[in-house]
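=== Structural record ===
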Amino acid sequence: MALHVLESGKQSSGKASLLIIGGLWEPAERAIPLLANVPGHVLAFSFRGRGLSSTPATGYGLEDHLSDIAAVVRHCRLENYYILGFSRGAAYALGWSLQHQEQMKGLILVDQPPLHRSLSAEAVNFWSSLVYQEVPILNYMRLEAIQGLARDAREVDFSAQLPELLIPVTLFAGRNKTAELGSDLSDETLHIYRTELPFCAVVEFDQSGHMIPDEEQQKYIAGVSLCIQ
């Protein structure tokens, strides 16, 4: 199986790399604004079934997606790196970080509860028919992959494991209550992050709902750049 990776900059012993993990349907290309504007060594990749990566017939559970992260980390020889996870990608980032934080320097979570969700039949219909910014989601993610998530993904709640994360965690939270696509973070979930994570900073995006990378792009880029200094 092949995974498509985009990379800017070069690894340096003096500055940590940043690995970007996109949302449910997002290919690596969705991270181009970060790749183009965040200084240093920055990488993004397309999970199986997205973008230019392969689409296996099976293997769309949590561990399968973590194995994609492992393949990228190993191939790119990442050490002492940051991970940014947006939306469902933050769930994968959490699952990875809880197992590999000794390799990492920090974690950025973007508008996602500490939860890896299953996918219902209704969700398959929703995602397969969704058009975002005038582009069908199926232009980015194959229907076979969405159906694979519905078949293989099981709900995992990471809340009880949050105290185990001893690396710095920054949480980006959309706070615009009138956004077309609202934030996935309730006040209760923000409280869980703040109280259960030993080292947690919360950055609020008042003009954004869930889609922070699009709705407040310049603040988003600046915030990511600040986190990895």
User: Anything to note?
Assistant: The longest helix spans residues 62-75. The two ends are 34 Å apart (CA to CA). The longest strand covers residues 104-110.
